[in-house]
Amino acid sequence: MSDIAVRCEHAGKKFCKSLKKSMLYGGLDIFGSVFGAVPDSTILRPEEFWAVDEVSFELKRGESFGIIGPNGSGKSTLLKMLNGIFMPDKGRITVNGKMGALIQVGAGFHPMLSGRENIYINGAILGMTKKELDRKFDSIVDFADISDFLDSPVKFYSSGMYVRLGFAIAVHCEPDILLIDEILAVGDKAFQIKCYQRMHEIKKKGTTIILVSHNEYVVREHTGRCLYLNHGKQRSMGPSEETINVYIKDVYEQRSQQRTVNNSQDPNKQKYAEIIGLKFCNVQGRETSFIESGAALDVFIEFMVHEDMDKPILGVNFYADDGALVYGANSHYEQFEVKEFLRGPHSVKIHIPHFYLPTNDYLCSVVVAQENVGNLIDWHDSRYKLVVGRAPNARGLLKLPTQWEILK
Amino acid sequence: MNDHTHIYEPHKQLKLGMKIWAEMFRELFQFRELIWRLFIRDLSAKYKQSVLGNLWSLVMPFVAIGTFMYLNHAGILDIGQTQMPYPLYALIGLSVWQVFATGLSSGANSLVGAGDLITKISFPREVLVIASMAQSVFEFLIKFVLIIVFFLVFQFSPSWNIVFLPLVLVPLVFLTVGLALILALLNGVMRDIGNIVSLLLMFLMFLTPVLYPIPGKGLLFFELNFLSPLVNAPRDLIAFGHIQQPGHFMMAAGISLLIFLVSWRIFHLAETKIPERM
Fold first, then answer.
1. How far is A70 from chain B (nearest CA, A)?
2. Which of B44, B122, B190 is the closest to A83 by Cβ?
3. Cβ of B14 and A36 within 8 Å?
4. Which of A103, A179, A318, B192 has the fewest CB atoms within 10 Å, counting from its CB?
5. pLDDT value of residue A300
6. Is residue A39 less than 8 Å (CB to CB) from chain B?
7. Of B37, B48, B116, Cβ closest to residue A120
8. A33–B13 C-beta distance less than 8 A
9. Which element (helix H / strand E) includes A382?
């Protein structure tokens, strides 16, 4: 077998926006392929669009690869193409090895049947033989942690149990290439950690992993390279960290464009000051959206003052993906007193020598206030994103500085 | 899912030419376990959801046979002479007919009914159609128990050639799977097909000598209806030990096999278009 696991050459898939047309085209295509009058699939007919367009990449055996992009950018479609559920309408996809896909956990579960029965059915769907399943049965049940409910119908399962069982079966089919679509978002934290650990083990055994996720942190953590899709097109591809930076920047720019439009529609609003932007720089002074937990971080707040303002207060807040305020830097609370800002552009740097926030995706807000914290002049709500990754040799989500001493 | 290299590209199926047949058989063989599992799944699910379970498949024959007997008795219908007691005659006919009817209607709905399986998992879709056909064959086995009970009740001793019954049913099974493959495909694009099928099946049953013997005068439709020899052959076998119109039967069997092969080929060509329209 060659050492290329997946090769995708100019692959494209088109969909139809209108249901009626879709039925018509479906009929025509089937009719055409039966009678040999093959329509050229690379041409768009009315109401059709490319859901995935001109995507090319090559994965080596054992490589892990991420696919990111906004909703509707074609990530899941591409994954289904790699899995052979959708045939490409142009280009070519070559897959070497046994493919396992976690596109939807528990697809094919029969609600009336017990967990035990469903393990065998779902296993067969994923290509496992009875012998194989007999051998792995205990390990599956153990991983899914459902032994008490093994003989109850799965419709009595909680959604977490459902997902656990589905994932457990899928990871036990030992594929050469594993496709994972945003499924681990379900299930509690403990199970998620278990899943990622398992993924790590699978990866070590040389399995190629393709991961689709909205969670940039997860992608950064588990993949070496990454493809960023936008409107079905390949916007960027390369080392995960760089690609994620491009993506986060795009999202930011798109959002701020929307804001500008919104703001300009409200001419009555005269502000003393206006926030221009927030920037993060790493220890090398390079602008980034990603840092390792515990590393130095410089936060730059840029803003424009329209009328001289005294007693300004500046703040930056970091919210975790569940909305909780994890950390806020605030000039008022930290006694960084400024007498006044004169008219004109300003830039303020907050240097954080050790950014100890645990690994996660954070949304950041910026606030400019006056005199007291409640008197807001301008603010950008959760408009910026910072991804905090695991520090080298960290056990767990963060790494704290420690001093060790032998006492006895 | 296998250890071979897969290449996905547009119209790949057409580029393979005749080699496609080897691929089709290989795929089917590879997924035999899945067919079995899906069959067991549907069987046990059906059994779990109802009190009577598989006994339900016996209700319909009783109702239909009772109705026909009443109509005959009241003089509304003249069924004429049958080679065995009428209830037995009708039961065998109906049981064989339902191999076709339930196989066809459940097969036609098998892709649409599979939901997530189709859109989220990759496997040869004909597996679904075949598994639902297996269901229909299984129901025939249950009815066969009832047929044996009828043998005892009516003190009718069947020919020993009854052991060849499975063989005689094979063409009917091929025909059913063949038609179901095409209908399942069309049903994926237009959901009307499911309704049309159940309507057509009702008409076809009355137009096929299932509950009555083949009319003596050679009506064109009955001559052309190749379902008729397929349905009658098992009954002939049980009553006389041989098939009464072997020529017709062989012809019908040939057509059935041809329909199966052509349909399977078409299904295989078109099945990749189904998930994206579901």
1. 21
2. B122
3. yes
4. B192
5. 94
6. no
7. B37
8. yes
9. strand A376-389
Which residue in chain B is spatially nearest to A38 when comparing CA positions? Answer: B11
DSSP state of A268: T
* Amino acid in position B94: L
- Enter the tokens of residue B25: 């058989």
User: Can you read off the two tokens belonging to residue B230?
Assistant: 């397929």
Region of residue B81 (left: phi > 0; alpha: psi -120 to 50; beta: else): beta
Q: Token match 């859109």: residue?
A: B119
Q: What confidence tier does A186 reach under pLDDT thresholds 50, 70, 90?
A: low
What digits encode the pLDDT tens for the residues B31-45?
888 888 889 888 888
Q: Where are the domains positioned within chain A?
A: 4-98+175-243, 271-389
Look up the domain containing B219 and give its range. 54-277
B132 inside domain = yes
Given a cut of 70, whether residue B4 has pLDDT beyond it is no
For every residue of A293-359, DSSP letters joined together read TTS-EEEEEEEEESS-EESEEEEEEEE-TTS-EEEEEETTTTT----EE-SEEEEEEEEES---PPS
CA distance A381 to A367: 8
Q: Which fold has domain A4-98+175-243?
A: Rossmann fold (3.40.50)
Res A265: pLDDT: 45
Local structure of A184: helix, strand or coil? coil
Mark yes or no for CB contact B10/A42 under 8 Å.
yes
Is pLDDT above 70 for A49? yes
Chain B CA closest to residue A36: B14
Q: How far is A6 from chain B (nearest CA, A)?
A: 10
Q: Which residue of B has its CA nearest to A108?
A: B117
Q: Which amino acid is at B57?
A: S
CB contact under 8 A, A124 and B273: no
Q: Across-strand partners of A303?
A: A275, A346
As separate numbers, helices (DSSP H) first and strands (DSSP E) second, chain B gives 12, 1
Burial of A65 (0-12, 13-18, 19+ CB in 10 A): buried
Number of domains comprising chain B: 1
Residue A171 CA to residue A191 CA, distance in Å, equals 14
Domain A271-389 has CATH 3.40.30.10: no
CA distance linking residue B90 with residue B139, whole number of Å:
17
Picking from A38, A99, A104, the nearest residue to B1 by CB comes out as A99
Q: Which two tokens stand for residue A362?
A: 């954070």
Contacts of B7 in chain A (CB under 8 A): 92-95
Residue A103 is nearest to which of B36, B120, B277, comparing CB atoms? B120
**Residue A267: helix, strand or coil by DSSP?**
coil
Q: Is residue B98 in some structural domain?
A: yes
Write out pLDDT tens, residues A68-125: 988 888 898 999 899 888 888 889 999 998 888 877 777 778 888 889 988 988 888 8
What's the pLDDT tens digit per position in A304-354? 888 888 888 899 999 987 778 899 998 888 888 888 888 889 999 999 999
Q: Is the dihedral of CA B194, B195, B200, B202 positive or negative?
A: positive
Hey, is B187 helix, strand or coil? helix
The closest alpha carbon to B165, from B147, B183, B149, B191, belongs to B147
Helix, strand, coil percent content, chain B, rounded in steps of 5: 80, 0, 20
Any residues with CB less than 8 A from the CB of B3 and at least 6 apart, and which?
A: A97, A98, A176
Interatomic CA distance for residues A66 and A215, integer angstroms: 11
Contacts of A352 (CB under 8 A, 6+ apart): A296, A297, A298, A299, A329
Question: How many CB atoms within 10 Å of residue B99?
Answer: 24
For residue A221, the surrounding DSSP H or E stretch is helix A216-222
The encoded tokens of residue A195 equal: 């899943």
Q: What is the DSSP string of B193-228?
A: HHHHHHHHHHHHHHHTTTSSPPPSS--HHHHH-THH
